[in-house]
Amino acid sequence: MKRTIIASLFLIIACKEEKKEIKTVAEEPQPTEEKVALKNESNEVEDAKKWLEKSIVDYFKADIGNGEKNMQKITTKDYFDYKTDAMNVDLDVDGSLTQKEFQDKWKSKFDTSKAGVGIGFLIPSQDWVNIEVDSCDLKSSSNNEYIFNVVLRDDGFKAHYPSVVKVVKENGSFLIADVWQDEPK
After folding, report:
1. Structural domain of residue 170, as residue ranges?
2. Cα distances (angstroms) measured from residue 35 to each of 32, 38, 40, 42
3. If both were cysteines, with which of 97, 131, 137, 163 could 102 make a disulfide (CB 3.0 to 4.6 Å apart)?
4. DSSP 183
């Protein structure tokens, strides 16, 4: 009889412990689709930011003689053509446009007032010592498009260069699709 009671107690205790396990597992919150989407978007934003910071630093550390090729690697085709036209406005080079021709050509795709006409890619200076990313903060994002407030720093010239950079994800990789630069006064 004692053995039956002891066996019954063990059985009851075992059932209660099993029941606790089931209850514990059932109480764990399951991630909602919204939470999963936010986490994926957060990862995507972080990936875009890291890519942008690394690409900017690499661009300015690369051989200046390959500047055009290096710019092409990190920009969309449209932005590369647009910024090349902007840098060459009113210069005496083949294919250069007047200010009006430039605006007429690109006004449907870009805000030509923020093109940085006559100034370089990402910074208005022609020369630099050591460009670093001082800050890169997400301004907005939507469907594979990320807009960052970026401040570049050149300690050699004690200069800071603020701009807004649009990054897009195309074919699984990030590219700069636009840079809004204030033109020097």
Report:
1. 32-180
2. 5, 5, 9, 10
3. 97
4. P
Residue 20, token pair as written in the block: 């606790």
In a domain, 10, yes or no: no
pLDDT attached to residue 146: 98
Instruction: Tell me whether residue 26 is in a domain.
Output: no
User: From CA 4, how far away is CA 135, in angstroms rounded?
Assistant: 73
Helix (H, G, I), strand (E, B) or coil at 95: coil
User: Cα–Cα distance between 74 and 81 in angstroms, integer?
Assistant: 13
What are the contacts of 58-65 at 24+ separation with CB within 8 A? Answer: 59/121, 59/122, 60/122, 60/128, 60/130, 60/131
* 73-96 pLDDT per residue, tens: 999 999 999 999 999 998 888 888
Categorize the per-residue pLDDT at 183 as very low, low, confident or very high, splitting at 50, 70 and 90.
Answer: low
